[in-house]
Amino acid sequence: MEHVVLNNGVKMPLLGFGVYQIPKEDCERCVLDAISIGYRLIDTAQSYFNEEAVGRAIEKCGIPREELFVTTKVWIDNYGYDMTRASVLESMRKLRTDYLDLILLHQPFSDYYGAYHALEDLYKEGKVRAIGVSNFYPDRLSDIAAFNEIVPQVNQVETNPLNQQIFAQENMVKNGVQIEAWAPFGEGRNGIFENPVLKEIALKHNKSVAQVILRWLIQRKVVALAKSIHRERIQQNFEVFDFELSVEDMETIRTLDTGKSLFFSHQEASTVDLFVELIKKRRDLM
């Protein structure tokens, strides 16, 4: 496994296993499969409703806790200093761990400043090893980095061949923040797995398109999160350290960048409306 070193000296695996949209009934098995294959970074979130399943897998896997890198994210409805602090401690309980390797603020809305101050204090107390944000665009990332005591260690954003986050990554490097990719496969949107450019590169290396995408991210020093509920695909996604893309391959993939999200823009008012509705729906589930 290759690693990056965060701005506070913590080592973070460059490849992880994400559990977004994995049903509760499958999650524990999938995480156990991933850990047995060799994944050490496991990424979940309060809003995924599967922290407890991840916690059971962590407890059962047989791997020393210090060898795992466990990440979760604070949901918007838990923002504000007191609620964020309480929710993180509850996440730790569900995950059956007395510390987190990384805790992120999930979205750049509502009282994320109060929430971030809670993360800073939890970091100082040693309850979390690294803190960060998710879906923070360059302006908001620069803002939170400039006007807080602790610069975020990580910013997790949509990053894939069709939305490559070139400028965003440059801004993160400038601020000393590590970029991490969600939706590296774009959830299959826009025919990404059938893209002729990616298929040609995959054929040349005798790899799948998914493996090429993960390798492309790793070579850009982007932490990548792969997800599947099928053990054979989980295994295949892990087999990306035995080949290397050429400079030409990397430049060719760069031509696919549209600079646009495959999902939504956090800078549009309609996205705020979308998350207001999501908050309401998740309240009914919690």
UniProtKB/TrEMBL annotation:
InterPro entries: AKR, Aldo/ket_reductase_CS, NAD(P)_OxRdtase_dom_sf, NADP_OxRdtase_dom. The active site is at Y48 (proton donor). PROSITE patterns: ALDOKETO_REDUCTASE_1, ALDOKETO_REDUCTASE_2, ALDOKETO_REDUCTASE_3. GO terms for molecular function: oxidoreductase activity, acting on the CH-OH group of donors, NAD or NADP as acceptor. Substrate binds at H106. Keywords: NADP, Oxidoreductase. The record marks K73 as: Lowers pKa of active site Tyr. Residues 21-256 form the NADP-dependent oxidoreductase domain. Pfam families: Aldo_ket_red (PF00248). It comes from the Bacteria. Belongs to the aldo/keto reductase family. This is 2,5-diketo-D-gluconic acid reductase. It comes from Youngiibacter fragilis 232.1.
